[in-house]
Amino acid sequence: MWQAVRDNQGNMTTTKPIDVELQGAFKFFNQEPAVHGIDLDVKQGEFFSILGPSGCGKTTTLRMIAGFETVDAGKLFIRGESMTNVPPYKRPVNTVFQSYALFNHLNVWDNIAFGLRLKKLPLSEIQSRVKDVLAQVKMEGFQSRFPAQLSGGQQQRVALARAIVNRPAVILLDEPLGALDLKLRKEMQLELSNLHKDLGLTFIMVTHDQEEALSLSNRIAVMNKGKVEQIGTPSEIYEQPRTAFIADFIGDTNLLEGQIVDIDANNLQVLTKQQLKIIVSRREFSPNEKLHTVKVSVRPEKIQLSLYKPNVQTNCFEGRLVNFMYLGTRVNYVIDLAPTIRITVMQPNIAGIIPNPNTTVYAWWSEADCIAIRE
Q1: What is the pLDDT of residues 307-360, one digit of tens each?
Q2: One domain for residues 212 and 296
Q3: Which of 220, 245, 270 is the last residue of a domain?
Q4: What is the CATH number of the domain that holds 73?
Q5: Which is it for strands 47-51 and 219-224: parallel, antiparallel or unpaired?
Q6: DSSP per position, 100-137
């Protein structure tokens, strides 16, 4: 059922019900926490990604939702029902694995129909459902083929069809595109997004691919060392990372350490050990945080470069071009601003002229294009 809540202005609005909720969930292996007291909720119809490096606990979290791992402490609810002691086959979820887990001795039709036959549904309903789902994943005409006769992308579609045909409340995706090559992965990202919109089901995806999570998700939970460090929309995660780990893990960034030496109503003034003065939009900092150490995150694409000193008053620094990487549509530059401060700058390839290494350059960015992160 839909829930009525008040927004920040006090107006009544509705929010979608929660399909999956974890409350203080722990999972221990050899008495060590692989998942460390995480809280998250996934709304109905949402494409929710759990993102993080290898060993951060993201796959274990997905396996707890699926029922393949127990929740050792805390609570797990699906559609408001506690999943304590509920086995995987009785949960309203279906999992799509990176390995696809198709039955090699069954053709496409029988792979998709397998779960429906276990439920002993009428033959007419099985035929109708399989036919419909084959059309949804664009695999009509392939029903008689066996997995070995399919490409990686086609096998992925069959694995999705087998999950969807059971009409679960939630689809769990465990690195679903990880086995595909880059070009096919890009194509399947678009197909997965379209499929999610067409079906209206709740998707929960585990991935270590930042671009995949950013492009597909309504919201993302970033995990590190068994904990959730931040949950937010793709733009919130990328533009407003709450920790240095997230800033560094999501995309590329330059992290410049310094001390807050002044705070006014709009900005922070951060001074690095090399005496570079950086002006940062204040955002969530309070006046009593003066003299605190912070890291300033500046995304490479937010930095401008010039061979001549621009008429810019703040965050403009003279540097030396150390190296560059030509990438066709863009060029990545490595710049030394000080003996121990090296930054990366990404510029679109529009000028066609690349200065030689050791050339003096000027790098600058606005106070709104950088963010201070507490240590």
Answers
A1: 999 999 899 999 999 999 988 889 999 999 988 899 999 998 876 677 888 899
A2: no
A3: 245
A4: 3.40.50.300
A5: parallel
A6: ----TTS-HHHHHHHHHHHTT--HHHHHHHHHHHHHHT
Q: What are phi and psi of 58, to 5 degrees?
A: -70, -45
pTM of the entire structure? 0.86
Total domain count, the chain? 2
Q: The tokens 């107006």 sit on which residue?
A: 11
Task: For residue 31, count CB atoms less than 10 angstroms from its CB and return exposed for 0-12, middle for 13-18, buried for 19 or more.
Answer: exposed
Question: How many helices and strands (H and E) does the chain possess?
Answer: 8, 22
Structure tokens at 327: 């990438």
The residue whose two tokens read 């990372």 is: 241
- Give the three-state DSSP class for 200: coil
Distance CA 351, CA 315 (A): 23
Quote the CA–CA distance of 232 and 242 in Å, as a whole number.
10
What would the pLDDT profile of 89-107 be if each residue is shown by its tens digit?
Answer: 899 998 888 777 888 999 9
User: In angstroms, how far is CA 273 from the centroid of its own chain?
Assistant: 33
273 and 257 in contact (C-beta within 8 Å)? yes
- Cβ atoms of residues 129 and 116 within 8 Å: yes
